[in-house]
Design a protein that fits this description.
- The chain has helices at residues 3-17, 23-31, 64-74, 91-99, 110-122, 159-163, and strands at 53-54, 60-61, 81-85, 102-107, 128-132, 145-150, 165-175, 182-190, 193-202.
- It is of the alpha/beta class.
- It has a single domain (3-202), classed as Vaccinia Virus protein VP39 (Rossmann fold), CATH 3.40.50.
- The strands form two sheets. The chain has a seven-stranded mixed β-sheet.
- Strand 6, helix 6 and strand 7 (165-175) form a beta-alpha-beta unit.
- The structure holds S-adenosyl-L-homocysteine.
- S-adenosyl-L-homocysteine (SAH) binds at residues 59-62, 85-86, 88-89, 91-92, 106-109, 112, 134-136, 151-152, 205, 207-209.
- Keywords: Cytoplasm, Methyltransferase, S-adenosyl-L-methionine, Transferase.
- One of its GO terms (molecular function) is protein-L-isoaspartate (D-aspartate) O-methyltransferase activity.
- Its EC number is 2.1.1.77.
- One of its GO terms (cellular component) is cytoplasm.
Length: 214
């Protein structure tokens, strides 16, 4: 077996052993090559290790097992319109694009938006679009969404995002102070309101209001 093939097998094995068991999620993560979203340089050869890695603008590409568990919790259906807040490298959005009808991903740093969109274009992912926007306000012009995934930590689930979730819809969001342990929360919109489930401790960069200064 080639080195790459072996590393990919280990990658999938690590995902399974950390609790990523949903077949559709594993298939999507097998198809989307994390190496396409990790910048070249110092950390390029660590793309298939289960660890977060630095990307431009002082941000991080999340740990693969956390990407898998969040995607699994979101329970995306083939007809869904999905919003991701925090494009970063575009890796998570590319995985969502394998599972959903349409994915909008918003990011406050222009450079990250441009690089992610270039990756989507190069890989021929036509149902995912990266946009420069403050995701704490959601994306009113495309609302409501069937699923919302926030990949930066908020102190509370942002009100505009709750408002843009369709009835029956699911939002997964890390909640807590940026330098403390955060909890991954699953919010389900019911006919009467919202249900909250606490999933697991996580650690994400903070959700910051407004656009990045460049
Ligand atoms: N999902 C990414 C990793 C996200 S890191 C991936 O797969 O690589 C979190 C990202 O959220 C950072 O890029 C950060 O700039 C962005 N972010 C933080 N606050 C934001 C906001 N209010 N609106 C949009 N993006 C935000």
């Amino acid at each position: 077996m080639s080195d790459t093939a072996e590393r990919k097998m280990q990658f999938l094995f690590a995902l399974r052993s950390k609790g990523v068991t949903d077949k559709r999620v594993l298939t999507a993560m097998e198809k989307v090559d994390r190496g396409d979203f990790v910048p070249g340089g110092l950390f390029a050869d660590r793309a298939y290790e289960d660890m977060p890695l630095p990307i431009a603008c002082g941000q991080t590409i999340s740990q693969p097992s956390v990407v898998g568990l969040m995607t699994q919790a979101l329970n995306v259906q083939p007809r869904d319109k999905v919003l991701e807040v925090g494009t970063g490298s575009g890796y998570q959005a590319a995985i969502l694009s394998q599972l959903a009808r349409r994915v909008y991903t918003v990011e406050r740093h222009r450079r990250l938006v441009q690089e992610a969109q270039r990756s989507f274009d190069r890989l021929g992912l036509t149902n995912v679009m990266a946009m420069l926007s403050d995701g704490s306000r959601g994306l009113p012009e495309q609302a409501p969404f069937d699923r919302i995934l926030v990949t930066a930590a908020a102190e509370d689930p942002p009100g505009p995002l709750l408002a843009q979730l369709r009835e029956g819809g699911i939002m997964v969001v890390p909640v807590g102070q940026s330098d403390a342990v955060q909890s991954l929360i699953k919010v389900t919109r019911t006919p009467d309101g919202f249900e909250y489930d606490e999933l697991r401790p996580v650690r994400f960069v903070p959700l910051v209001e407004g656009l990045g200064q460049e």
